[in-house]
Each structure stands twice: as structure tokens, then as C-alpha cells.
Amino acid sequence: MPFVAPEGPKCGKCGKSVYTAEERVAGGAKWHKFCFKCDLCNKMLDSVNVAEHDGHLYCKVCYGRKHGPKGYGFGMGAGTLSMDMGAQFGNNSTAMSNVPQTGMQY
């Protein structure tokens, strides 16, 4: 009976065999040292700055851009906030003021 080498784990990016001396582990999969980089910016990753999503590796910055919270003005400071008048809540006034009006019923 001929010798058959055991099948090693496959790299999550290139699909080739990963040997113990060159492996990196993230997201339950093993990766080659040179395949262990961000899918968006190609930055080399390590155990501190890696984030995995659906079998893809990202650095923390790119992961936040692609899979983080979405919305207008989120995290960009007051210069990007909108001046919403609140029409969807029944506010029909044209002048914005933070002074409470007298005679309003709550």
C-alpha cells in the first residue's frame, strides 16, 4: 500500500495547503502569512487588527467602513448634520427656535 500524505488545511484566500510553520488563524480558518491581509486595502494583518466577516479578512478600519453603522452624519462631526425641521413628526413651523412656546398642550 503506497504512502498517502494527510490532507492539510486549506488557506481561506488562495485554497492551497497551509503548513504549521506559515499559518495564521482567524475566523476559524487557517491562512498563509502572505494571504493574511485586508481584502480592501491589502494591508498586512496581525492578531490585533484583524476582523473577519463571511470568510473575508479586513483591518479594523476597513471593517468599520464596510460593515459598521450607516447613516447620514454618523461620526463626522457637526458640520455634516442636517437641519431637519421635523415635518415627519407634524412640525409645521417655519422658524426654528429652542425657546418653548407658551400655551402648548402636552
TrEMBL record:
UniProt keyword list: LIM domain, Metal-binding, Myogenesis, Nucleus, Repeat, Zinc
Keyword hit for Repeat: yes
UniProt xrefs under SMART domains: LIM
Domain (LIM zinc-binding): residue spans on this chain: 9-69
GO BP of this protein: muscle organ development; muscle tissue development; sarcomere organization
SUPFAM superfamilies for this protein: Glucocorticoid receptor-like (DNA-binding domain)
InterPro entries for this protein: Znf_LIM
Keyword Mitochondrion: no
GO MF annotations, alphabetized: actinin binding; metal ion binding; structural constituent of muscle
Subcellular location: Nucleus
Cellular component, GO annotation: nucleus; Z disc
Annotated protein name in UniProt: Muscle LIM protein Mlp84B
